[in-house]
């Protein structure tokens, strides 16, 4: 929805300046429901949602930036004929009964990968899914945040001021609850509009396969060497300093998990890197190190000093390697030196995939996962040239590419393998 301010004349031939009217703010249709935190109240929600019709809009609020855990501290639901419910999952052992009441209804979520794990933790697991963020990506929208999509597609404005609050707070303030309830109110209308657009653009089947993959995907296991994600770790000088980063990070992580506090609130990453390079040997020296200030630094100073002592005394053969272990191909920047032909294959594939993604108006990473491309280009399937498209298709499917992605890209990748562009002459076999 739009409009303009009254026209003004700045002189002959000067166009009048226009300012679009802001989108009207989305308001709660049925008022703010009470938080469901008792068994009788939950039983009412079960009856209401079991008797509703159509898809169920679902959202979850976590306390990212405040708590160590990624648990849900509020679950919001809305369904036609059921209204909106705000459920406090902390008040119940699980929400298995609610999952049963929803049955096989389609769930509407935004950025489902962010919420599926914490919803599963309380017993909520979809059998059918529509992800509005992923739909927006497939449709080529340049910005796919919920508020932006709602404004662009639905023509309404969402409040944004409570997106980063501490949802573990009890009781939850009413303005926060209104913000949370509005998110699911917007999802139903947004899903209808995006669903129509997917049909009109011929991308509905792509989306169906993507959503099915989200539902069936196995949860990721623990990240390998999570301490390597320490911000600024590239400034650590040598393997001994890397060992100190690792020991300090793991000590902080243990404290954070025990206290259920986000690790950065105990000591920041920057302090870990500074201490890893300085290697202070006692509490006084540690607390004079840049970044080692505040209650977390002082309260656990003896543990930080001990972590540094362990790192300082590790035998050389137990120090962590500079580069993380990885079961895939080397970083692309190293390909030109290690295998120029593979580098040419990758460059060719990337160029052609980008052109194909532009043709279909979607991000190239949604056309095909970049890691899949690297793996196939580094170690192409072996076989006769005529067999290569089928072999590439099999390899992509093994890696987890969806059928629509395989159909669009297998021939393109085969051509890049057979005829890479700009192969250095010295790399071409005589």
UniProtKB/TrEMBL annotation:
<dbReference type="GO" id="GO:0006139">
    <property type="term" value="P:nucleobase-containing compound metabolic process"/>
</dbReference>
<feature type="domain" description="HRDC">
    <location>
        <begin position="238"/>
        <end position="318"/>
    </location>
</feature>
<feature type="compositionally biased region" description="Low complexity">
    <location>
        <begin position="11"/>
        <end position="26"/>
    </location>
</feature>
<dbReference type="InterPro" id="IPR002121">
    <property type="entry name" value="HRDC_dom"/>
</dbReference>
<dbReference type="InterPro" id="IPR002562">
    <property type="entry name" value="3'-5'_exonuclease_dom"/>
</dbReference>
<dbReference type="InterPro" id="IPR041605">
    <property type="entry name" value="Exo_C"/>
</dbReference>
<dbReference type="InterPro" id="IPR051086">
    <property type="entry name" value="RNase_D-like"/>
</dbReference>
<dbReference type="GO" id="GO:0003676">
    <property type="term" value="F:nucleic acid binding"/>
</dbReference>
<dbReference type="Pfam" id="PF18305">
    <property type="entry name" value="DNA_pol_A_exoN"/>
</dbReference>
<dbReference type="Pfam" id="PF01612">
    <property type="entry name" value="DNA_pol_A_exo1"/>
</dbReference>
<dbReference type="Pfam" id="PF00570">
    <property type="entry name" value="HRDC"/>
</dbReference>
<protein>
    <submittedName>
        <fullName>Ribonuclease D</fullName>
    </submittedName>
</protein>
<feature type="region of interest" description="Disordered">
    <location>
        <begin position="1"/>
        <end position="33"/>
    </location>
</feature>
<dbReference type="GO" id="GO:0008408">
    <property type="term" value="F:3'-5' exonuclease activity"/>
</dbReference>
């Amino acid at each position: 929805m739009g409009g303009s301010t009254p026209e003004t004349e700045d002189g002959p031939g000067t166009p009048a300046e226009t300012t679009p009217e802001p989108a009207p703010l989305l308001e709660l249709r049925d008022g703010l429901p009470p938080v469901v935190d008792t068994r009788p109240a939950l039983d009412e929600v079960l009856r209401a949602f079991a008797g509703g019709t159509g898809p169920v809009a679902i959202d979850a609020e976590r306390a990212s930036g405040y708590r160590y855990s990624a648990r849900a501290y509020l679950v919001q639901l809305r369904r036609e004929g059921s209204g909106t419910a705000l459920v406090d999952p902390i008040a119940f052992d699980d929400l298995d009964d609610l999952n049963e009441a929803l049955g096989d209804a389609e769930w509407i979520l935004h950025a489902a990968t962010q919420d599926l794990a914490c919803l599963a933790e309380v017993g909520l697991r979809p059998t059918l899914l529509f992800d509005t963020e992923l739909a927006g990506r497939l449709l080529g929208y340049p910005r796919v945040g919920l508020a932006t999509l709602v404004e662009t597609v639905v023509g309404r404005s969402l409040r944004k001021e409570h997106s980063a609050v501490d949802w573990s707070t009890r009781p939850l303030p009413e303005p926060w609850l209104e913000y949370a309830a509005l998110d699911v109110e917007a999802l139903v209308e947004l899903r209808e509009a995006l669903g129509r657009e997917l049909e009109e653009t011929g991308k509905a089947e792509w989306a169906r396969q993507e959503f099915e993959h989200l539902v069936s995907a196995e949860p990721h296991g623990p990240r390998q060497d999570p301490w390597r994600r320490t911000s600024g770790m590239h400034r650590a000088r040598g393997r001994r300093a890397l060992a100190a980063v690792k020991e300090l990070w793991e000590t902080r992580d243990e404290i954070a998990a025990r206290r259920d506090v986000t690790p950065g609130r105990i000591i920041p990453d920057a302090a870990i890197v500074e201490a890893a390079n300085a290697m202070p040997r006692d509490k006084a020296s540690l607390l004079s190190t840049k970044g080692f200030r505040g209650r977390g630094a002082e309260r656990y100073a003896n543990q930080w000093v001990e972590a540094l002592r362990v790192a300082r005394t590790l035998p050389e053969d137990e120090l962590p390697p500079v580069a993380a272990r990885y079961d895939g191909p080397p970083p692309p920047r190293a390909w030109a030196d290690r295998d120029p032909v593979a580098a040419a294959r990758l460059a060719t594939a990337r160029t052609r995939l980008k052109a194909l993604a532009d043709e279909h108006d979607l991000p190239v990473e949604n056309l095909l996962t970049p890691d899949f491309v690297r793996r196939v280009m580094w170690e192409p399937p072996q076989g006769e040239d005529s067999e290569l498209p089928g072999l590439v298709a099999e390899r992509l499917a093994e890696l987890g590419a969806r059928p629509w992605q395989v159909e669009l890209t297998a021939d393109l990748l085969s051509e890049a393998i057979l005829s890479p562009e700009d192969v250095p002459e010295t790399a071409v076999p005589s």
